[in-house]
Amino acid sequence: MTNNDLVYLAWQAPVSKGWHVVGALTTVSGAREAFEFHYTKGALASDSFTPFSGMNDLNKSYISDKLFPLFHNRLLSQKRPEYPKLIRWLGLSESEATPLNILARSGGTRETDNLQMFRRIKIDESGYLKHYFFLHGINYLDSSATNRIDRLEQGERLSFCKDIQNTNDSQAVLVRAKNPAEIIGYCPRYLAQDINELLEHSEYLHVSVETISSDAPINYRLMCKVEGKLQSGGFDGFPKQDEYQLTI
């Protein structure tokens, strides 16, 4: 499995409500495109986790010429009338709307389970990074937050704020609008630890409004863009989290 196009799978433990990175999905190059899935060390972090149907061995690599049902069932059919809207909300062009890109950008969420898909923040050889994410937690805030989001403009600068008083998640990162200042949501939990490290080890780290889709469901309402650059010699191997490592 290569790291070129990995989409990670996060799972929420039912009792602790903590999130763990339990798997990685990618494409396999060859005469015919195929898909490869492997569990990561996050699958070993909770006794509550059980392997997915048809993929019972945590130490095995699974390859298929079709997208595994676990992931295929998270894609909206192109035949559905709302499909063009979804692709627009996700900020993808027609050529970019591949299964992995759709899963990574949309999160591949379903109301019936506790799974979320995403890509990690990638940093190039010069230390530069650019990443997109949808604002989370809007529905937990006062309605004024939604109204504030509707007044934002594309490209408008936002701010990251560590939520140090959050007793449920020590890594939680708030997103705040400026002028006037108001909390409008959260950075996704699966990115929060990376964002915390970047806040400590970056020359700069900017977050801004990428798109606002007023006709979208709340989870696709505001897409943010984060750009930054690591300090030279800041820290080696950003960031080292065991849960992302493959089990073999």
Characterize the structure shown.
The protein is of the alpha+beta class and 248 residues long. The chain folds into two domains: 7-119, no CATH class; 128-230, Alpha-Beta Plaits. The chain is 17% helix and 29% strand. The chain is built from five helices and eleven strands. It has helices at 69-72, 83-90, 99-106, 143-150, 189-201, and strands at residues 7-12, 19-28, 34-39, 61-64, 115-118, 128-134, 157-162, 173-177, 182-186, 202-212, 222-230. The strands form two sheets. Strands 6-11-10-7-8-9 form a six-stranded antiparallel sheet. A five-stranded antiparallel sheet has the order 4-3-2-1-5. A hairpin with a 4-residue loop joins strand 8 and strand 9. The mean pLDDT is 91.
Give the DSSP E fraction (strand runs of 2 or more residues): 25-35%
Distance between the termini: 11 Å
Biggest sheet: strands, sense, closure? 6 strands, antiparallel
Oligomer: single chain
- Tell me how many strands there are: 11
Within the largest sheet, what's the order of strands? Answer: 6-11-10-7-8-9
Could you give the order of the helices and strands? EEEEHHHEEHEEEHEE
| Number of alpha- plus pi-helical segments | 5
